[in-house]
Write the structure tokens for this entry.
Amino acid sequence: MSSDAPVDYDIFAHPSFDSNEYANAILARESYNPSAPKAKGGSSVVRAGGSLSSEAGKEDISLAIAKLNFAIDDVAKQLQNVVITHHEALLAQASTVTDLERSLGSVRHGLNQVETSLDRLKSKIQIPHATLAAHVVRLQRLQMATDVLRRTSRFVIIARRLELQMVEVDAEPTHANGTSEVLEGDKERAIAKAALSIAELVSLYSSPSETPPEPDSEPSSSTRVPLNQVRAVARYVPAVETARLKVTTEMETMVSNGLRDLDQSLLASSLQTAYNLGVLPKLVQNLMADLTGAVDDRIRAAFDVSRISRETEVKQTPASSVPSLMHKSRMRTEPSNVTAPQWTQALWSRLEQLVEDMSSCCVKVYTLEKVLQRKRDPATGVVFLDEGMKLLENKPSSTFWMSLSQAIEKHTRENARNSTFLQQTLSTSYPRFLRLFHDFFAKIAVHTDTVYTLSQQSPETVLILRSISQFETLYLSRSTVRLNEAVSAVVANKDATQIIRTLANELDKARFDPLLARSVARNVVGSLDNLITRLDAQVIKDRLATSLQGPGATIQQIGNAQVISTLYQTWLRLCRLQDEFHESVWVILEPSTRMIQAAYQRAAEPLLSAIRRETAAIIARLHRVDYGKPFEATVGGASSVYMDDLLSKLNLVRTEILPRFDIGELRNEWIISTTKHVLRHFVLHASIASPLGEGGKLQLTSDMAQLEFALNQFVSTGDGSGGKRGSGLKVEMAGDDFRALRGFRPLLFAEPADLSSPQHTVGLPPLIVLHHILVLSPVPMPHTTHGWTEAEYVRWVDTHSPSEAWDLIEACLMRWEKSPSAAALENVDKENADEYIALARVVLTHARDLASYSATLVNGRK
């Protein structure tokens, strides 16, 4: 074999190479593939296609051995080359391995020492621990035995004490009657002590699963040994159970008697007994269940129509030896016309008895809660209410009120759904039904903290009343129907009597209950709003509704007068209800009352404005009269044409318009308001009438006399009643306006020097005096200066304050003084003008001083 023949090492480097398989392949003259899957016998040999002779096989084997030897030599040379090439690194690694062996030797030595120490520690701990564990087990057993002996001793001592206590409990009072109460008190205390002893005995002999141990006991509940199997204890157990039953019975009797008689001391003793027995939470829960259950049964019976039917039929059916099959087979749920009164009487009798039963149960619940709240355990200081509420979600009183309201709502709703009689009776006579609950609240008020008055309602009372809200809803719906019918009648007949009578009756029926009264008041408000809407729609607003052409009132004015009268009468009688009902009711009614007032004022304002407008237009015609004529040219005593028209207009209003309104005092206000308007406008127009001569002054005086007489007649008989109802009104009630008319007559004939004297202008506004001064002087009037008409100037004065009018006149004076007209006057006229201007300034000064003084007084009072 050539030394440089290539050697294939891939076969030998394959991970699956097997030397035995390779040798077998050579011997079998087969090729070897290590990656080929093994045959069934586990060989990877691949068979050759033909057979070879043994010689050929031997040569092949020799050749394979030669190749292997050559490969071995080649690998050895390669290894030698690698070692030679890397001999320094290999020597360094060898040195490192030597050092590592020394370190590992020292670690191995340390580990051996640790194992030796661990063996010594095990020998020092394991044996004492096992001994200690055995002692602990022995100690626990001794403690358990000691606990059993201690509890047994305690049990025997308490059992003997219980025997003495039960003798005291069973002892009959043999003393005189005078000491019986003391003996009864001693018995209650003995029962409480016996209960405490029984509770302790039961805790001593019961197993942990039956009764938990005391929290300060030494052994845990899992290792506590029951005493049932101890003979010294077992012989006492029957007596303890008997005593337990006896004390429990006595406790229940005491609780029953205490609640029945409302004896708080007896109830406190019984609750102390229950606490000592450890059954206080269960007792309170059972008591509340019994009381609420009793109330529920009584409520169900009171509203049971079938029972009412049986009761009335038993009373009506005559005694007969032959029973009626029809009576047994049929039970009426609705009364007939004949039996309806008997059914109604039976229902109210049941409800009255129900109130008594509810009051009794409620007082018992509150008595129980008071005792629970005040009573504490003398030893532990635990409040019984906290202990008793362990099984309750709320306080007993809250639980009772909730159960009571639910029972009332449930049974009334169910029975009313099935019985039309019950629904109609309780809804129609709801005030009577509600009064029963008022009686209920009054009966329990002494014993509870519930309040139900006009100003304050406890949440409990409101909760109960909500349970019967279905009947209140039906009652209020019927009340609304009655109110709406009254509104329709008022709209049709224009008569407020029916609506006032109806709403007063509805409010009066609900007067006794604050919540019902407010609900009815809200219904009344809705009806009044409906009335306002419907009457407001009937108000006529066309031209004929405000026409004053005469000779009488128009149909539109008559219709509007009826609407206004109806609204006013409704408003007036509603205002009278303010003193009759509680403030909370009036608060609800007051907005509607103001709306009614605004409605009739809104309806009357166009007519009143027309009257003011017509009279003002007629008075403005005053300036068409020539008042500058001398005295000889006038015809004395005759009134002016405008005054005749004004008197005719006032007479039309007095006799045809105002009598259509049935509005009482409001009509007097209209009359006085109209009178003031006429007087104010007449005086203003008369004060600016220019030029003014002596004959004009006499004519104005005559007109003023005619006006005063007409207004006196207008005021005194303005309501068309012949003077009886209107005789209380006088023209003097116009106040400053009438005094201005009276003061204007002498002002016409006063000397110029007296115009600035307050004594000669009493009752006259400064503006009227200023107007008269300007009329007498050459200074033009303010309306002339500004290019206004007399009517426009009067309207301006009427809508502005007096100080603004004074400022306007002063501006006119200053403007005239600077004008060329003033400079063109001759000396005499100039002096005359300056004199009047000085008078005007004096009047202005006095007026402003007086206004400033009055404002100071007003501010000082504030």
Summary: Residues 133-173+180-212+227-278 form one domain. The chain has five domains: 10-84, 133-173+180-212+227-278, 300-314+338-460, 475-602, 604-861. Strands lie at 31-32, 45-46.
